[in-house]
Amino acid sequence: MYSIIRHALFSLEAENAHQLSIQALKLLGKLPISLGNLTDNPVEVMGLCFKNPIGLAAGADKNGEAIDGFAKLGFGFIEVGTVTPVAQAGNPRPRQFRLPEVQGIINRNGFNNLGVDNLINNVKNAQYKGILGINIGKNATTSIENSIEDYLTCLRKVYPYASYVAVNISSPNTQNLRMLQYGEALDELLRTLKAEQTSLSQKFGYYRPLVLKIAPDLTQSEIVEIADSLIRHQIDGVIAGNTTLSRQSVVGLPNAQQQGGLSGEPLNSLSTQLILQLAQELQGRVPIIGSGGIHSAASGQEKIDVGASLLQVYSAMIYQGPKLIKTLVNQIKISQ
């Protein structure tokens, strides 16, 4: 059935197909049906109990419009966003490009979203009671020097509604954003956000884990430094990783020359290597959420085996449909 749906969707421009899919999932969320029949595979990470280790990656539902629909696909957790303090249009269209020969996607969206207040309203209206991550970023018009204020604004607003908060400093589509991954800029960001997390946990009487999302395009020495910062600032988790600027695995393919971040199957080995290197540095002190290129049970299991505690998917689901979620949930083995 999904092959027929995909054929229709792929006849549309990529972003139009995505918007149509969100509307369909919003409708699914309102219907008294489930695409379940999944094996229970619970896992506890960051003090949270996930019904299974397979999550929806950020970027699929930037505004939290279709949370209930995505939940019915069988995800163990859902991450919405990236959201910014105020609405922004993102980069000019077209900005999403398919590479069907390798089940890949290139995007240069640029954090297009309707703003944090809109997302919170959608979260409040959702019926979903599972683990919900909210991914936060900075507005394109905010300078890197002032970016911490954007993250603080979002953290304060989403804290009461998130199961965990993911801090996105690794999108390649917001100018200079990845500079926040390095040195004193990273330390200042994590130090400030950790202090605010402590203050908010005292204010509300509950603790919401703080997770950092990093890029796969890091050197070994940069990974070592990031791991050290995560441990020193007691960050609760790390998402490894975001999309890549590398085109090594797609040279010569149609659309491969497009600017933006590459996701999907071509990212798989790069993200697995990032997880392996991070795990060697972190030694279990900070849990890793593996994201990037998962397209089969084998590719997901490999990420678990090298050190990931949870997994996130998005691009492969566009090519394979909801059956991928069922396959991953039923076949991925977690050792605790």
TrEMBL record:
SUPFAM superfamilies recorded: FMN-linked oxidoreductases
Residue positions of the active site: 171 (nucleophile)
GO cellular component, one term: plasma membrane
Cofactor, how bound (note): Binds 1 FMN per subunit.
Pathways per UniProt: Pyrimidine metabolism; UMP biosynthesis via de novo pathway; orotate from (S)-dihydroorotate (quinone route): step 1/1
Residue sites binding substrate per the record: 62, 107-111, 168, 173, 242-243
Places the protein is found: Cell membrane
Keyword set, alphabetical order: Cell membrane, Flavoprotein, FMN, Membrane, Oxidoreductase, Pyrimidine biosynthesis
Main localisation: membrane
Domain Dihydroorotate dehydrogenase catalytic: residue ranges: 43-333
Example of a GO biological process term: 'de novo' UMP biosynthetic process
EC number: 1.3.5.2
GO molecular function, one term: dihydroorotate dehydrogenase (quinone) activity
Catalytic reaction equation(s): (S)-dihydroorotate + a quinone = orotate + a quinol
InterPro entries in the record: Aldolase_TIM, DHO_dehydrogenase, Dihydroorotate_DH_1_2, Dihydroorotate_DH_2, Dihydroorotate_DH_cat, Dihydroorotate_DH_CS
Enzymatic class: oxidoreductase
Family: Belongs to the dihydroorotate dehydrogenase family. Type 2 subfamily.
This protein's name: Dihydroorotate dehydrogenase (quinone)
Lineage of producing organism: Bacteria, Pseudomonadati, Pseudomonadota, Gammaproteobacteria, Pasteurellales
